[in-house]
Amino acid sequence: MTDATSILYGKVSAEEMSWIGSIMPLAALFGGMAGGPLIESLGRRTTIISTAVPFIVSFLLIALAVNVAMVMTGRAIAGFCVGIASLALPVYLGETVLPEVRGMLGLLPTTLGNIGILLCYVAGAYLDWSMLAFAGALIPVPFLICMFFIPETPRWYIGRNKHKKARKALQWLRGQNADISAEFDEIEKTNAESNKNEKTAGCSELFAKMYRRPLLISIGLMFFQQMSGINAVIFYTVKIFKEAGSTIDGNICTIIVGIVNFGSTFVATMLIDRLGRKVLLYISSIAMIATLGVLGLFFWAKERNIDVTAYGWIPLASFVIYVIGFSIGFGPIPWLMMGEILPAKIRGPAASLATSFNWSCTFIVTKTFVDLLALIGSSGTFWLFTGICAVGLVFVVLFVPETQGKSLEDIERNLTGGPKVPVRQCRRMSSIANLKPLPMAV
């Protein structure tokens, strides 16, 4: 332990540790609230760019911390930016990527995020927290540079009557030789219909009858994503393994969980445009229900002093399958579908509401997890999450639409009761081949 680390090591109370863990999602809640107005006023791209410098500052505060307040301030700034980014990125991708690959490319932020989690787990085994934070401060630098070379979304430009810039951005996104006439006309038509139906966009339109269904579906998916207990399980992985009496080192288990988390999200990117969103959500729900139920049974036996030494592998096996289940479905898909199903007219405030709701659920689960363990025991806690996942499965079956291969305009018409039109078909190869950077891109 280095001198910088020893300043705080051993001086953090259990309550302070709880707040260090939960202040990030609490701040992300407010970031989500701010993100909606920002992506509407500044644009999707500019909002994303604006998070880079605060991210760097947040990591430096943590790296240079000499007291708990500095760590918590750094975590709060990072959380606020995460709240903004978790809203802006799905909206940006949803508005720029073609339907044939929107699922695969829409999962990229989650996949790359899981790479970051895995790298953190591995590096954390060798670096103290201050050096790890210094490393984290370097990551936003290439992100900031690269973001300057991509355009704003054509839909945002059209919504601001900047049609020439919108056409130029769409042409860059689809490739210089691509015919964008049909797609551009469709975006303009949908924007005109939206302007005709509603005089103004904003928070007052959120709960209009025509927008109620997509908004409630997005909020419902966010609820079941977080109330599955994933963030509490990930944050307290080592603690849970210690309480389970597992014979496998807790830090090794954490790294294994990180590898599985990344690998399964990568698999999801390959499957989502083949199997569809709903099939992956079904698989995800069933896997989480089964594994959380088994974990509850394991802890139930342990709480009754039943010898489970021979079954010390069960917590790790259950965790691995649970993380696989979450990562292929309920982890990335609610964010992807938020960018797909929210109507263009209310996309900013609705995405803000859904994101804030998600992070409020994250805060509640993370902050109360230890209290739940004390109140109803480990078995009761895992069985509670099992029940929530079961209700989530029913929700998906009854209410969640399939969006695979559909344009945003088609999805919006179907969910808001607009006039039905044939689904626009696009060539898969051009979808992928035209995702080229500008010549000077990094």
UniProtKB/TrEMBL annotation:
Signal peptide: none
Native organism: Bemisia tabaci
Membrane topology: Multi-pass membrane protein
Matching PANTHER family: FACILITATED TREHALOSE TRANSPORTER TRET1-1-RELATED (PTHR48021:SF96), PTHR48021
Location in the cell: Cell membrane
Top-level taxon of the source organism: Eukaryota
GO molecular function, one term: sugar transmembrane transporter activity
Record PROSITE patterns: SUGAR_TRANSPORT_1, SUGAR_TRANSPORT_2
Pfam families: Sugar_tr
GO CC terms: plasma membrane
Family: Belongs to the major facilitator superfamily. Sugar transporter (TC 2.A.1.1) family. Trehalose transporter subfamily.
InterPro entries in the record: MFS_ERD6/Tret1-like (IPR044775), MFS_sugar_transport-like (IPR005828), MFS_trans_sf (IPR036259), MFS_Trehalose_Transporter (IPR050549), Sugar/inositol_transpt (IPR003663), Sugar_transporter_CS (IPR005829)
Positions of transmembrane segments: 19-39, 51-70, 76-93, 105-126, 132-150, 215-236, 248-272, 279-301, 313-336, 357-376, 382-400
UniProt-recorded name of the protein: Sugar transporter
Keywords: Cell membrane, Glycoprotein, Membrane, Transmembrane, Transmembrane helix, Transport
